[in-house]
User: What shape does this take?
Amino acid sequence: MPRSVNSVASRARRKKIMKQAKGYFGRRKNVWTVAKNAVEKGMQYAYVGRKHKKRNFRSLWIQRINAGAREHGMSYSEFMGKLSKSGIELNRKVLADLAMNHPEAFKAVIEKVK
Assistant: This one.
């Protein structure tokens, strides 16, 4: 009896990868082996990128809070230390938003901390 190969599943698997490679330049978009490697590498970059995104946003929030705090004569580390001592539980994302978009509310937080 001849060997049975599941060509339906094989084609679907290749089709899925080729669909992900859409928009790539040159042979990366239409040659199976090249596209497969390009998509796998792209997935690795995407995975690492999700971690970097968290890092970058936290850094941005810290810079914004620092700028807002320095307008009121306080450094970032001093502000965060006093914030935790006073028992105010606002995370950096919210504090950065207040510093950027609602300076009067951020000033109220600073006054409460002082």
Summary: The chain has one domain: 8-113.
